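ugh finaly. both done.
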Amino acid sequence: MRLRRLVGLALSLLPVLAPSSASSQGTKDQARLIFTVSGGVVLGRDLWSVDKQSVQFITPTDTLALERRIRSNIAIGFGATYFPGDNLGLAAEGFLLGLGFEDSCRVVFSSGSADLVAACQDIQGNTKSASAVGLSVGPVLRFSSQSLFSPYLRANVGLVFSNQSSIRTIGTFPTPDGPSDLIVYDDDHESRVEPMLGLGAGFTAQIAPGYQLRWEVRDNITGVQTVTGPSPVARVIPPHEVSYQHLFSFTIGFDVVLERKRGRRY
């Protein structure tokens, strides 16, 4: 008789206990509107080289071998991403690529001019800083959006704005009247705007309500003006064209989540 009373009491409490148990489970939310600040490094690479560039210092013509590479640089990014649904979103970003350069010079043939040697030595190891910024927009595809760790893929297209010529090459040599410039290659543009494409992969990790950390590796395929061969004489604009350089970046970001979509309760 007592057992029947206990069973009846348990059955009468079951509708009350079931919702209470469900409400005690964690709610899995989805980030929808995210603002990101990131920092890291962009790896450098070789840009162009010319084996024999004639320089009319004195007769017979002297010849230089020249190389230019893109230096590794600090990467800084600011972006925003909006997810109207669970997985596919749209991101807009400003990304500092740098695009600084480092030059190499070697005298291939010298007629004995000390000025030529001094100008080449000035070019050798010379570095140029730059502030190339990419502005881009593109889709983001994330997975496991309600999990603590959420991997994602992204693609973005845009433009790179650079303030340093990737063509102009100048060496300085001393004269009795002061330093003088040997302009090996000239350029009629100090700054340029070129297209870019970014392909990236990474993941986010929630560290607190409304905050995430982000890790990403990306191939920044960037248009850069490149010298394609020697010019007949120095002090002119050499043959050149836009080449698309693969500049790989590794960044760590901090996300502020301003809007969240409440997930289901389990």
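ok and the 2nd:
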Amino acid sequence: MTDIRAVTEKIKQESLLIEESTAEIGRVLVGQRNLVERLLIGLFGNGHLLLEGVPGLAKTLAVRTLAGVVDAKFSRLQFTPDLLPADLTGTQIYSPKDGSFSVKKGPVFANVVLADEVNRAPAKVQSALLEAMQERQVTIGDQSFPLPDPFLVLATQNPIEQEGTYPLPEAQMDRFMLKVHVDYPTRAEEKDIMERMGKLDQPIPKKVLTLERVLAIRRLVDEVYVDDKVKNYILDLVFATREPDKFNLGKIKKWIQYGASPRATLSLHKAAQVTAFLRGRAYVTPEDVKTIGADVLRHRILLTYEAEADAKTTEDVVRILFDEIPVP
């Protein structure tokens, strides 16, 4: 069994570093506390994130700032309809001198990869990204190359202006640990943005976290205790999307075509552990699961045509799940 006191002491030692990292991000990024926390959950939970929001909400700036705080290799890919898999993964270059081929690695070989407007890339490019996300390796020609560790994909997509886009397939959506909705800033935050970002000299975050420290924190997160009651709560939430009748949720059965996969269970478990860690605790509470639950589940539930006819979204389904499933 986990020694909660010992883990708590370790978390206290890391808390100053986390506070400093959050402060550095806040020096560049105004507001968006929910987004910042989700970025840290992805970083320390070893999971990829999909950020969705209208243009101009600082999604790209947030990812770039996170990479600036971590002493990591960062690359940004602007996805377009004419992008090729080789533009992402790299290619083989022929040398006419000796008739040999050498490998030129692509921008995906980085610790933090920003896939900007990921839904504008065609299927072949998305497939190449899918291999990188899931297998953490890239195939160039007949060779496979491991990606650096840590490796984190932070993808953005625009929910409006769908012309010229290729919706992400369900298999790829499931690879994202979290799908985060990025909202508009408040009036006070937007005034701060106007005053801070309207100058020529933009704030640059200083490096706070090393790659070794990130990997050490990931190992520490693994030690955060999850009680069986909380594990069963996570299982209830996921299984209720597959078998609503067994949880007295017959009213949502007609809206769900396919429920969440086992990967949702793993993601919810890990995200809850990181949430507890960020709050300075060595154990997970049901509130941690509720805090992060919508971001884990919203993109893993496939709705029926009947749900569309009833003007229901996955947000509605997830809300009912958390309202109706008993909390331990």
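summary for the 2nd one i guess: The mean pLDDT is 85.
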